Predict the structure.
Amino acid sequence: MRRLPVLVVLLLALSPVEGLSVWTARGDAQTKTALTLALEAELDRCPARTSIYLQHLKIGEEVEVRAFQLAEARKLDFDERVTLGRADLRDGTGVFQYADLGLASTVRDLILQMIITSDNTATGQITTKVGGVDGLNAWLA
């Protein structure tokens, strides 16, 4: 798994390079295209299903490459509401374990908590939405 650290180093190295950085003073479309193409080429080399999302925190510019594959394929609706029952709650990390039963969160909120707080309840719900562990493994293969 040496490729992941190499990719991270490559991404860090790409951002200040003139012509590849999405975060130049101009921020023009041609510059964005160059970075997107460079990222796509690197992701194509990875022996796994990959995506990337970057945001410049000071100016808010974003770059995404294959960032929302299941949503784009209409297999995951970010606005769909998921009602949490007692059997859905998971101990460990995150905030949903303390939520009231019957809370109807959006898939988007579940994904945010899965990423931001490593919420085990949210992770379980999203895993179920994408076909369970077997479905997720099949999609990643």
Notes: The CA atoms of residues 70 and 76 lie 6 Å apart. The chain is about 45% helix and 10% strand. Confidence is low (pLDDT under 50) at residues 1-25. The longest helix spans residues 29-45.
